[in-house]
Amino acid sequence: MPLNKSESWSSQNCPGCGASLRDSESCQTIFESFLALEYADPGYGEVHFLTVACFMIQHGCYSDEALAWIEQKLRLNLEQGVPAMQICRQAAKETGQGVRLWKITRPPDAPQLPKVAWSMTIIDVKAGYHDAASYCALVTEWARRTLKEMSPLLVQK
Ligand SMILES: [Zn+2]
Question: What is the pLDDT of residues 64-108, one digit of tens each?
């Protein structure tokens, strides 16, 4: 998912999630390296659903409908213990059917989302993991915090 090109890159912080970046580093390239890792190694792939959800939420990639939908999915996984694999399968089915009802990707003319001062970003996962187990633990923690902190992004009905 490419970041909004109209936003200019700051040398210090990601314009999407506010993470402090080093030179030539971007959340997008880190995300792509994580995905490669998850596809190559099932030990890392276990948290694939959470990695994608957190990245998309923190970078404003989801439409309002998708934000409400993914929040439910995160709750199912993190609060009710529904396995991520099961949610993935269910999600694939639902998005397959739901494409005609609403778009997952935030349309360019959608209202701008409020900025959230995330307590944890993809940079923290990258800095902290050293194997599959620590990777999964960090991504899960990232997802817990994202779920807790994403409420300003949800449209109040
Ligand atoms: Zn970012």
Answer: 999 999 999 999 999 999 988 788 787 777 766 654 456 789 999
The answer to whether 20 and 120 are in contact (CB under 8 A) is no
Q: How far is the CA of 76 from the centre of ligand 1 (A)?
A: 25
Give tens-digit pLDDT for 23-57.
Answer: 788 999 999 999 999 999 999 999 999 999 999 99
CA distance 155 to 92: 24
Taking the centre of ligand 1 as the mean of its atom positions, its distance from the CA of residue 67, in whole angstroms, is: 17
The whole-angstrom separation of Cα 149 and Cα 49 is 18
What are the backbone dihedrals phi and psi of residue 126, each rounded to the nearest 5 degrees, phi first?
-60, -40
The domain locations on the chain are 27-152
Ligand 1: distance of its center to the CA of 38 in Å? 19
- Per-residue pLDDT tens digits for 125-156: 999 999 999 999 999 999 999 999 999 999 86
Give me ligand 1 centre to Cα 15, in Å.
Answer: 7
Residues, CB-to-ion distance under 5 Å, ligand 1: 14, 16-17, 19, 27
